[in-house]
Amino acid sequence: DIQMTQSPSSLSASVGDSVTITCRASQSVASNLHWHQQKPGKAPRLLIYTVSSLQTGVPSRFSGSGFGTDFTLTITSLQPEDFATYYCQQTDSSPFNFGPGTTVDIK
Amino acid sequence: LQMQESGPGVVKPSETLSLTCSVSGDSISGSLYFWGWIRQSPGRGLEWIGRLSQTGITDIHPALRSRATLSMDTSKNQFFLHLSSVTAADTAVYYCARLVGKLPDQWGQGTLVTVSS
Predict the structure, then answer these.
(1) What is the distance between the alpha carbons of residues A75 and A106, in angstroms, rounded to a whole number?
(2) Residue B9 near chain A (CB below 8 Å)
(3) Shortest alpha-carbon distance between residue A44 and chain B (Å)
(4) Gyration radius from chain B CA atoms
């Protein structure tokens, strides 16, 4: 199985800050890496697919990059609605594991 | 698109967990999408369970393959998860999802299933 790790596990930031979350795969997943956002008590929501493509309706302050084993999610100019937990997921090989999540909370 | 999970909130150990996902706003029979299940628990995080298509393609997490069955009823626009021989480790919030290939792009709201005697 491909194991996914994320760092940091949590971070505190202020509205207007920029933050970067890292996701690492235990072996190459090529570009088959995606990001989901989850708010407390809600289902996850697909945010970015195939490394850097924004899902419909996702603001351009979200961006993704990477290839192979190392990926990043960047949020520029954090907004109040961005405080949430972010999960990476690989769909390169089954089982299509998720990372453990990174919680972004308000400083 | 709306998807709603339903099923018992409590299942006894060793019994079978059965969940239904009712879909509105899209036809699962005419769709090019896959339909699947994902669960989430504090101990295991988000765990991809499996997916199926209306053409009969199924793909189940290797660790669950011996216990999980996915099926659908296109006449009711519903799909199902059956997980046999459950233990406390199967306690989780279960989400149904629409998938573009292997990737969930729309999620149901989730339903909590507790395994307890």
Answers:
(1) 14
(2) no
(3) 7
(4) 13
Q: Does B1 touch chain A (CB under 8 A)?
A: no
**Side chain identity, residue B53:** S
Q: Which of A44, A94, A96 sits opposite B107 (nearest CB)?
A: A44
Torsion A97-B94-B105-A42 (CA) sign:
negative
Confidence of residue B72 (pLDDT cuts 50, 70, 90): very high
Q: Determine the pLDDT at residue A39.
A: 97
Tens of pLDDT, residue by residue over B96-114, are 999 999 999 999 999 999 9
Other C-beta atoms closer than 10 Å to the C-beta of B117 total 9
Q: Give the closest residue to B77 by CA, choosing from B60, B98, B47, B50.
A: B98
At position A6, the amino acid (one-letter code) is Q
- Inform me whether the pLDDT recorded for B31 exceeds 90: no
Cα separation, B30 vs B23, whole angstroms: 13
The CA R_g of chain A, rounded to the nearest whole Å, is 13
Contact between A23 and A36 (Cβ < 8 Å):
no
